[in-house]
Design a protein that fits this description.
Elements lengths: L15 H20 L4 H19 L1 H14 L6 H23 L5 H20 L14 H35 L1
Helix pairs in contact: 1-2, 1-3, 2-3, 2-4, 2-6, 3-4, 4-5, 5-6
Length: 177
């Protein structure tokens, strides 16, 4: 009886040289988007999209690097609104990718975007209470901010799962030859 291979518990990245080049490029892209003179929403969505693309092409180390280093690099712009949103962006990115890693493959399609949205939805809900009343930079369009981030997180997760499935099928075809 032959031992069965353990199931993969994380995304299958691109082949090694391609993984490194594309992964570093996507991390640098996230950093460039973070320091670019763009509106706060566009910068945040750009970092999120670059982080999920870094996950799909480079693997989790590049995704964590993009999600955790790029928002900090955004402080170089000196934007006070970015400083206010920094804890939300960092905690959202960390939770989203941890959820994707631990719930990998199909459950991650729901869990990763939900965990990404938890800190932001909680901040929005608490900011409407008297005790925690604060004017966050996304006011008055907080629902639009939340919806767009949830949509981009869902698309990024679907992209990562789809590319992983495609790589798995191509590896199986090569194994049959």
């Amino acid at each position: 009886m032959t031992p069965r291979a353990a199931p993969r518990v994380t995304v299958r990245p691109a082949p090694s040289p391609q993984r490194l080049v594309v992964g570093f490029f996507l991390v640098l892209l996230a950093i460039v988007v973070a320091v670019a003179p763009l509106p706060l929403l566009a910068r945040s969505l750009g970092i999120l999209a670059s982080s999920y693309a870094a996950l799909a092409f480079g693997g989790l180390p590049f995704a964590f690097a993009a999600a955790l280093l790029a928002p900090v690099a955004g402080l170089l712009t000196g934007d006070p609104d970015w400083l206010v949103m920094l804890p939300l962006l960092l905690s959202s990115g960390l939770l989203g990718f941890l959820g994707l890693d631990y719930a990998w493959r199909y459950p991650a399609v729901a869990i990763s975007p939900l965990l990404y949205m938890v800190p932001q939805a909680l901040a929005w809900w608490l900011s409407q209470r008297d005790l925690f009343a604060i004017a966050l930079p996304w006011q008055p369009s907080a629902p639009v901010w939340l919806a767009l981030h949830a949509f981009v997180a869902l698309l990024g997760t679907l992209q990562a799962v789809g590319l992983d499935r495609l790589r798995e099928r191509s590896a199986q075809k090569r194994g049959r030859r």
